[in-house]
Specification:
This protein has seven helices and no strands. With 186 residues, the chain is mainly alpha-helical. The protein has a domain of 65 residues.
Amino acid sequence: MGQDVEELRSDIERNRADLGQTLDAIGDRISPGRMVTRQRNRMTEGWRSLRYRVMGTVDDATTSVSGTASSVADRVGPDAVRRQTEGSPLGAGLIAFGIGAVAAALIPPSQKEGQLAQTIKEKAEPLTSTVAEAGREIAEDLKGQATEAGQELKSSATDAAGQVTDRAKTAADDVRQGQSSSTPTI
């Protein structure tokens, strides 16, 4: 009988501990602070996942991905664009740039933008001629310097080639003299 009482007490203690954990879990689940934390963690993980899909991960950088689309519809649809840009930040950037360029081409400039563009063009005209002239002068100076450097290089190469030829002839003569003095006469 003593054992039955001890078993009952241990069961009661175990049930109390389980009930305490259950109540703690319920309290954690309905706590406003914990709800905010869980939601923030979900959002952070979502952004991280999106970033990894677009930019790729370190593992993606070490593996090559290849494949071809089986139909034109697969290549043109928005899902295809998303699939093709996964792990490719350059591709995503080019697509965004292309969309921006198309949008800019479709939206006509306002009257104010046209006036500003004309004003800038008029004021930039003297600068463009000055810059073009300076560019021509720099090109002429560089051309002269490049010609001089080329001639110096040519003469240095010619001198070096002559020195190498002289040394080769001297070495060949030394070898011939060494052979003729070491060959026995019969």
